[in-house]
Design brief:
Strand order of the largest sheet: 7-6-5-4-3-2-1-8
Structural class: alpha/beta
Number of strands: 8
Order of helices and strands: HEHEHEHEHEHEHEHEH
Strand content: 15-25%
Bound molecules: pyridoxal-5'-phosphate
Helix content: 25-40%
Largest sheet: 8 strands, parallel
CATH architecture: Alpha-Beta Barrel
Distance between the termini: 24 Å
Shape: globular
Number of domains: 1
Number of helices: 9
Radius of gyration: 17 Å
């Protein structure tokens, strides 16, 4: 199966309005370009340097999403081109994104990453941290970011009920935050959840953005 065919097959099964991010992390520029040539324009990376290298080598009409843990000192590498950062989990990081976006005269979309999995290792906010974050006074002074929704990763598990419960939880978190803080903000609308192994469940539970790597490019080869 070719990359283009894989993308086509996945897209054919998606309900209208759901955004597919082709997660090109660890893939070469050539392989990423193959996906581009098949017509796809939305890509996701999880390392700042790798994202910057690819963005400068590939066509400018790609919409880049950053989906990995982001250190504040790496924000400047992606600020010139990134469309959305899915992994915002601290005010310190948001401050840095705002600052670098401003230098580039851009608005960067940001998703609040929530810890929804039962594994200890995954990054993200819990509800109390999110409330503190959203209510922090600094946030109103940031004019070069736009908070457009939430992101989460389910437990890596074959237990579909567990995965479904975690996605349901993220949807509930989204709805509560929307109602409580962003009711009048139409741009707060995204729920980024679902990967190769669980995106179908994620869509059933209300995902608006899925992040798919393996099902498009095949198994990753970590060097
Ligand atoms: C790698 C990654 C993905 C894609 O995972 P696949 O299982 O290959 O589809 C999605 N989201 C995040 C945050 C990732 O790091």
């Amino acid at each position: 199966m070719s990359i283009g065919k894989n993308i086509e097959t996945i897209k054919a099964g998606l309900p209208e309005g759901i955004k597919l991010i082709a997660v090109s992390k660890t893939q070469s520029i050539e392989v990423t370009h193959q996906a581009y040539q098949s017509g796809h324009r939305i890509f996701g990376e999880n390392k700042a340097q790798e994202a910057a290298t690819k963005a400068s080598a590939l066509p400018a009409d790609i919409e880049w999403h950053f989906i990995g843990h982001l250190q504040t000192n790496k924000v400047k590498l992606i600020a010139p081109f990134v469309n959305t950062i899915h992994s915002v989990d601290s005010i310190k990081l948001l401050y840095e994104i705002d600052k670098e976006a401003k230098k580039n005269n851009r608005i960067i979309k940001c998703l609040l990453q929530f810890h929804i999995a039962s594994e200890e290792t995954k990054f993200g906010l819990d509800m109390q941290e999110a409330i503190t974050f959203i209510e922090s006074p600094e946030i109103k002074t940031f004019h070069n970011i736009s908070i457009t929704g939430v992101m989460g990763m389910a437990t890596f598990s074959s237990d579909q009920n567990l995965v479904r419960r975690e996605f349901k939880n993220l949807k509930e978190i989204f709805s509560w935050i929307k109602e409580t803080y962003y009711a009048n903000q139409t741009e707060f609308k995204e729920i980024s959840m679902g990967m190769s192994g669980d995106y179908q469940i994620a869509i059933e539970e209300g995902s608006t953005i899925i992040r798919v790597g393996t099902a498009i490019f095949g198994e990753r080869n970590y060097q």
